[in-house]
Write a structure and sequence with these properties.
The chain is an all-alpha fold. The chain is 75% helix and 1% strand. The protein contains 17 helices and two strands. A two-stranded antiparallel sheet has the order 1-2.
């Protein structure tokens, strides 16, 4: 996917966004030092949490902006950086919600802060509280900072207002998806496949695809028709992306994804894989293990095999193919510039063949 995004947004976007992130974190870490070592360490850990990503959300912002004729690249990169900060914030919060201690193969902020607290003599419960509270605060700070990047743009007032409204809606919708995800995993309600698909759309498609694509278009001065096309494309491609993510959470290679393939099963994650399995004869074998926090790797791998046997993996493959096909058809039938249409086709097709 990296080469596809490079073709779309240009070779300079990744480094340019990284430079802006570096400047931002340098400033915040310097300011935080006046408030004690713990606060400085929190900002240093937030910086670490922002490293290692593919930067595909920034690439979507800048790629659309350039393909629609935008020339104020500095403003586009500021908006792109805002979406990368938002993404990092959601990852920090997600790790708390999912009770994960590892991200991208290394201890995440929760895990590293909890480990440090343990070394200093804290009880396991207190150390975990310290780690989770730190991650929540860091995520909150990054959401606020991301909004600030957009609020301080030197663009027309109406464009800034539309971007802020888009950003606000993105956070609003993503929170709804996260809440539904927790409700389903906690068995507050047993979801239907339609419920799980709605949660999938809200949790990922809004802020990862729909909003970045629309942001680039708004900044370029695009009209309502263009925004509607990009929004629907982003919704469909974003759902396909999350469906693939759900597959990788169970069937991926932990050495590549950096996350255990058993954690989603331990946490009782309700995904389309599980929603389909619930309708099959193999469901009782899966149900007795799903959501067991002490689920062993051995039993987890058996559950994974059962998910494949019952057709859940093939079912989700079909869903992915359907959403990608519909996304491509949607832009093909639009009045978007051909250069942008070609780039979006590739984004849709390659977003779901990644291994991590």
């Amino acid at each position: 996917m990296t080469s596809v995004l490079t073709d779309f947004a240009g070779t300079d976007v990744h480094d340019a966004v990284q430079n802006r992130l570096d400047d931002f974190f340098d400033e915040r870490i310097s300011l935080a030092s006046a408030y004690g070592d713990n606060y400085r360490l929190l900002w240093e850990a937030a910086r670490e949490a922002s490293t290692g990503g593919k930067r595909f959300r920034p690439a979507l912002v800048v790629g659309v902006y350039r393909d629609l004729g935008g020339i104020d690249i500095d403003s586009a990169l500021r908006v792109a950086t805002a979406f990368e900060l938002l993404h990092t914030a959601f990852l920090l919060h997600d790790d708390v919600i999912d009770q994960d201690l590892v991200r991208r193969g290394v201890p995440n902020l929760v895990g590293s802060f909890a480990a440090d607290a343990t070394e200093l003599g804290a009880t396991p419960a207190a150390a975990r509280t310290w780690g989770e509270a730190s991650a929540i605060l860091a995520g909150d700070l990054l959401i606020q900072a991301a909004q600030g990047f957009i609020a301080r743009l030197t663009v027309r007032d109406d464009i800034r207002s539309r971007l802020l409204d888009l950003f606000d809606r993105s956070v609003f919708v993503t929170a709804a998806g996260e809440l539904a995800d927790v409700a389903f995993s906690a068995r507050v309600r047993v979801p239907s496949l339609a419920d799980v698909m709605a949660m999938t759309e809200q949790k990922t498609a809004s802020y990862s695809f729909e909003a970045p694509l629309k942001a680039g278009a708004i900044l370029a001065g695009a009209g309502t028709d263009t925004l509607e096309v990009l929004g629907e494309f982003g919704r469909l491609a974003g759902i396909a992306f999350q469906l693939r993510d759900d597959q990788l959470g169970v069937f991926g290679d932990a050495a590549v994804t950096g996350k255990s393939v058993i954690n989603d099963l331990r946490n009782g994650k309700e995904t389309p894989l599980i929603a389909h399995a619930r309708s099959t004869a193999e469901w009782p074998r899966i149900a007795e293990a799903l959501g067991d926090p002490d689920l062993s790797d051995e039993v987890g791998l058996l559950v994974r095999a059962t998910l494949e046997e019952c057709g859940a993996r093939t079912f989700v493959d079909t869903l992915i193919d359907d959403h990608v096909s519909r996304a491509v058809d949607h832009v093909d039938g639009s009045s978007l510039p051909e250069t942008l249409t070609a780039h979006l086709r590739e984004v849709a097709r390659h977003a779901v063949v990644r291994a991590a």
